[in-house]
Amino acid sequence: MSTTASPPNSKSVADILRSVPDENAFYFYVGEGAPSGLKATSLREFLAQVEIAAPDSVAFHAHRGDFEKWVRMLGDPTLAKQLSTVSSQNLSPEETKMKMIRIIRMRVGKLRKLAHEPE
Fold first, then answer.
1. CA distance 76 to 73
2. Residue 96 · residue 62 · CB < 8 Å
3. Smallest Cα–Cα separation from 80: which of 91, 92, 70, 90?
4. pTM: predicted TM-score of the whole model, two decimal places
5. Is residue 119 part of a domain?
6. Whose CA, among 3, 64, 78, 88, lies 20 to 30 Å from 55?
7. Spatial separation of the C-alpha atoms in residues 113 and 31, rounded to whole Å
């Protein structure tokens, strides 16, 4: 039996932090049928793109549940649930973006520590 620490009910930390191929990347939109030109192929890249995405784009995806679905595909149900709680709140696009950034940043930091990666 393995004694390595990994998030419960999820893939290994390395799997969650991995880069995925373009066909599995997260593509940001500003609205229905309106791509923003931003994409993320890893959780770290996702954080960077959420930080520079327009608040309306973040809110668009948050309210549709897109972020949670993509994070679940990466294998992190914990982060997906945290993002879902923000999506269900009645926040402005700016507030939604700031909360999402804070949650993703904290989760990436925790996962990087578990993976013993340098900051």
1. 8
2. yes
3. 70
4. 0.86
5. no
6. 78
7. 35
Domain count, the chain: 1
Other CB atoms within 10 Å distance of the CB of residue 93 = 16
* CA 39 to the chain's CA centroid: 12
**DSSP assigned state of 25:** S
Instruction: Answer yes or no: is 6 within a domain.
Output: no
The predicted-structure confidence for 86-119, as pLDDT tens digits, reads as follows 988 999 999 999 999 999 999 999 999 988 876 6
> CA Rg, the chain, in Å?
14
Rounded-to-10 torsion of CA 116, 14, 105, 85: -130
Residue 1 lies in a domain: no
Residue 19 forms part of a structural domain: yes
Residue 29 token pair: 């939109």
Determine the pLDDT at residue 10: 41
User: Which of 29, 37, 106 lies closest to 70, judged by CA?
Assistant: 29
Q: Name the phi and psi angles at 34, rounded to 5.
A: -125, 85
Reference 30, options 69, 50, 57, 3; nearest CA is 57
